[in-house]
Specification:
This protein is α/β, with parallel strands linked by helices. The chain is built from 7 helices and 7 strands; from the N terminus they run E-H-E-E-E-H-E-E-H-E-H-H-H-H. It has a 7-stranded mixed sheet, sandwiched between helices. It starts with a strand and ends with a helix.
């Protein structure tokens, strides 16, 4: 299951904080899927089933700080283990458009992740796709920074980077987590080394 975090409503569309939800929307668009709202999970979902795998895409309908409700309900509804869940979220500690995979860990001050860990009774073994949004300039307010839209150029760069992650779910299921991480992170290091 790949869940993308964000805030619902038109005013939050394409804001930095919605990077995770925007990524899941891209995945659905790429696969010609429509997200269906479901009250049982407090969110919207779409799925792909093939002979080799089943992939579920989720966007919570709650606000970011209450994301855990949808994730815990979806886990039960789709009968998943926590380590079968990948959360895509914005990350202040990474430069804009830098993307990193992470196996598990704490919430790092991210309220959406904090709420998910709370709802999963402290189980933090879900995987993460950390989408870099950078930090505001010194002295600027973090909340207004994350709730603003990035510049067109920044968004274009991010969309190009996210395009490389469009088959992430399939890669993890078919090749395993470690191989997938190596594939993505090695190719990124090689890109950085190029003149």
């Amino acid at each position: 299951m790949i869940a993308g975090l964000g805030n619902p409503g038109e005013e939050y569309y394409l804001t930095r904080h919605n990077a995770g939800a925007d990524y899941v929307s891209q995945l659905c668009h790429k696969n010609a899927l429509s997200l269906k709202k479901d009250k049982q999970i407090n969110g919207s979902y779409a799925e792909i089933s093939t002979e080799q795998y089943r992939l579920i895409f989720i966007i919570p309908s709650t606000y970011m700080n209450e994301s855990g409700l949808c994730i815990s309900k979806s886990k039960k509804f789709f009968n998943l283990e926590t380590d079968q869940i990948l959360i895509a979220h914005d990350e202040l500690d990474l430069p804009p458009s830098e993307i990193r995979l992470k196996e598990s860990g704490g919430h790092g001050g991210h309220n959406g992740l904090r709420n998910i860990i709370d709802h999963l009774q402290g189980d933090n073994s879900f995987k993460r796709l950390r989408i870099g949004i950078g930090k505001p300039k010194k002295g600027k307010d973090v909340i207004s920074y994350v709730l603003k839209k990035a510049s067109n150029r920044e968004r274009e760069e991010l969309n190009l980077k996210l395009f490389d992650y469009h088959d992430l779910g399939e890669q993890i299921i078919l090749n395993g987590w470690q191989k997938t991480v190596m594939k993505y992170h090695t190719s990124e290091e090689e890109e950085k080394d190029e003149p």
